[in-house]
């Protein structure tokens, strides 16, 4: 029930905001709106305003705003039953463009608003400046730092969280740093020179260069989700499990946990977890998967098909001004990551089995709801960005397809003929249906439903 209700709430909010974007800009530009519908199919509830009929329909997988004179009165036989001054097709190109763009535009705004509220109230997760893993050949180790040391200051500037340490190291640009360290109640000052090294990006595994001191925070990796009938599920791992060791090696961050699993494809080894006050080990055998690097090289890695996050120690809220700034920046960063991921799906550097449909969204919404309102809110923001980008794709039947028609109209000085637009809409419909079928198929494979039919 939690999964179903969470899915309805998330999808309902996203659709409502999207369609309100179209609706309000249409009214602002003087376009009449005949119907405003949330959902498709049989109408469950309707009420009529002065000009617009408002509907709640049975299938909550979308919505629409039906505007007066959407097609040209000449081509579509319109011009009857409404004021031509309110016809969408007779409005200037800029007005039609804004009306169509307003839907996905409002999804971007919603994501930024949610991120701003969360960052300004619940805050961002932060970790104390306590050392976790210290690389034996790194600058921190050479300076005598060890696991458990607390960094009190960098260049005589006090630090409160590990992010303060990261900011100081990145800003030093290789310059030696005076680090004040607290150990066993005593403080001492050491000099550490950051090194430049290449590490894999945590999302796409692309190489990137960073400054570091060869040490990370004492973070707490935690299982956030488990795919049914996966190596993680068969081992007995559950969402909420805190991971302490992999094959006897302590892990202090999600990145370390992922790396320990990736380097053991097909091997069986113990993972030590904490659950409800108990500490125990489970035996895990990661699935061997072939991964293609950005350069085209193929490598076999291990995967247990589980979500891995960092268990927050505490949260720190931004002041209102900084919350707005970081909310906008979070939305921009999420948009860039989503676009990169979409491109990698198209070119095949990311497995297309990662494409998910409504079943996966519902499952993830339920998981986030069980973790708390903040997690569900941020999940809604992520899906809102994804919905905006999906709708902006230049595919007929989507908002991006209409925007493409407007760009062509601006270039040619006239709109495409109704026949050409109808043909394009038919092609777009076939593409969308194929994508939906593929996404639902992936969802069914993930939950093992196809085994019922011998799949």
Question: What is the element layout, followed by pairings?
Answer:
Elements: H1 2-28, E1 33-48, E2 53-67, H2 73-76, H3 93-120, E3 124-126, E4 131-134, H4 139-142, E5 150-154, E6 157-158, H5 162-172, E7 177-183, E8 186-192, E9 195-200, E10 207-212, E11 215-217, E12 221-226, H6 231-235, E13 242-246, E14 249-250, H7 254-262, E15 269-275, E16 278-284, E17 287-292, E18 298-303, E19 306-310, E20 314-316, H8 320-347, H9 358-371, H10 373-392, H11 399-412, H12 418-447
Antiparallel strand pairs: 1-2, 3-20, 4-11, 5-6, 5-7, 7-8, 9-10, 12-19, 13-14, 13-15, 15-16, 17-18
Task: Please characterize this protein's 3D structure.
The chain is of the alpha+beta class and about 450 residues long. It contains twelve helices and 20 strands. A hairpin with a 6-residue loop joins strand 9 (about 195-200) and strand 10. It folds into three domains: about 1-120 and about 380-455, no CATH class; about 125-215, Pdz3 Domain (Roll); about 220-310, PDZ domain (Pdz3 Domain). The chain has helices spanning about 1-30, 75, 95-120, 140, 160-170, 230-235, 255-260, 320-345, 360-370, 375-390, 400-410, 420-445; strands at about 35-50, 55-65, 125, 130-135, 150-155, 155-160, 175-185, 185-190, 195-200, 205-210, 215, 220-225, 240-245, 250, 270-275, 280-285, 285-290, 300-305, 305-310, 315. Strands 6-5-7-8 form a four-stranded antiparallel beta sheet. The protein has a four-stranded antiparallel beta sheet with strand order 14-13-15-16. A two-stranded antiparallel ribbon has the order 1-2. About 45% of the residues lie in helices and about 25% in strands.
